[in-house]
Amino acid sequence: MDNKISFIAGWFLTTASTITAAGVLNAVVLGLLGGFFGIIGKEAYFYIRDESKKALPKIKSWIAFKVESIKSIFKK
């Protein structure tokens, strides 16, 4: 167990000592921007999905009307 703790502690200290402050800042900024635009994208997806579900009955009735119009043209 001590070997595992010392291995993880050594890895962490080595990693922490090689990372620059600019690298940490870059990772923080990228994480915040990615999270922000991820939330915006999710909300946009749900908005578009809900609006398309509202419009679907109108589109279906319009298509049915056009199909009947075309059928009546060819019946004559």
Topology:
Blueprint: H1 2-18, H2 21-75
Q: What general form does the structure show?
A: rod-shaped
Quaternary state, please?
A: single chain
- Radius of gyration using CA atoms only: 29 Å
Tally of individual domains: 1
What series of H and E elements makes up the topology? HH
Low-confidence stretches: none
Q: Helix amount, in percent? A: over 70%
Number of strands: 0
Helix-and-strand structural type: mainly alpha
The mean pLDDT is 88
- Distance N terminus to C terminus? 88 Å
Provide a descriptive summary of the structure in words:
The structure is a single chain. This protein is mostly helical and 76 residues long. The chain has one domain. 95% of the residues lie in helices and 0% in strands. It contains two helices and no strands. The protein is rod-shaped, with a radius of gyration of 29 Å.
Question: Could you list some keywords that capture this structure?
Answer:
single chain, 76 residues, mainly alpha, 2 helices
Produce a short descriptive summary:
Helix content is 95%, strand content 0%. It is mainly α and 76 residues long.
